[in-house]
Design brief:
With 371 residues, the protein is an alpha/beta fold. It is built from 11 helices and 12 strands. 43% of the residues lie in helices and 18% in strands.
Length: 371
Amino acid sequence: MTISNQSFKIAVLPGDGIGKEVMPACLEVLAAAISSVGAAPMTFEVHNAGAQYYSETGEALPSVTLDACKSSDAILFGAMGWPDIRFPDGTEIIPQLDLRMELGLFAGVRPIRWFPGLPRVLTDPRAEDIDFVLVREQTEGLFYARGRGEIVNDAEAYDTMQITRAGTERVAEFAFQLAAQRKRRGKSGTVTCVDKANVFSSMAFFRKIFDEVAARHPSLQRDHAYVDALALTMVKKPWTLDVLVTENMFGDILSDLAAGLIGGMGMAPSADIGEKYGLFQPAHGTAPDIAGKGIANPCAMLLSGAMMLDWLAAHHADEKLADAARMIEGAVEHTLSTKLAVPMEYGGTANCTEMTRSVINSLSAVRREVA
């Protein structure tokens, strides 16, 4: 087996709640998959951040942690936030938003795929073909108002949405590039602009710029959908969707709805991608109700780790990293489809440790498929 000459430093931010439980599971699976294919070795450096760290120190995202993220090849992020721990103004501790702004992580990538063995939430058998990606612009939109909101005389409140040409162009271009990659794998190559252009001038502007970017990609298809109509389509016929691109708040809401189509947040990985940096995290939160019990489903974190491997593979021309990503995805699918282990989230008995062990044991079953 040939080992890559490259090596990578990964900043690891477990965070709060079940983030501290699913992160060790992810690191263990990553190490096993990387070793199996002889991919580039990785050094995982754990750093502090989050609500519980804030309650102890008064810092939610220490400068040393931010600096470590900037100097690393990629960032693995668990989950952060805690209901009873807030800033003096009452808002939650959300370092992930600070990282998006600090590192320019403009594209929130949420793959939505049904895995055999999962509960079929929708009764239509075509629901087994759900496989689309939601791309959410993450540096502006309504989230631009965070920290800038205004309350006037305790009678009126205002939050301003920001849509810029530069921000919309780069996220739309990202979505079309992603659709081109998926088309090469047999998908339709369709990008749908999700907006509310019939009401808001900012959204009409978003759609206008989307169409300008679409014109640069004549081999791909463009589509448009109002956000409310798209929510209906997600429930009625999500198997028809390919790549969606939308504003920050719309994407925040739709991504949770999308996760519900495939069984819940425990199967929802995500990536926050910028021009230089990549951060990878499960879409779920810290789950205070089950934190500390060891029963969290680690699959979303494992699949986020696979997304990190794919991103590194593309940026460093290391196909073995992509092979390791396919192995993790295949091992998760094998575990679920054969019911080698069924997460408690879906009525099974497997806790976090048992799910992790089953996925690692399944790596050998899928090894020859990516050899």
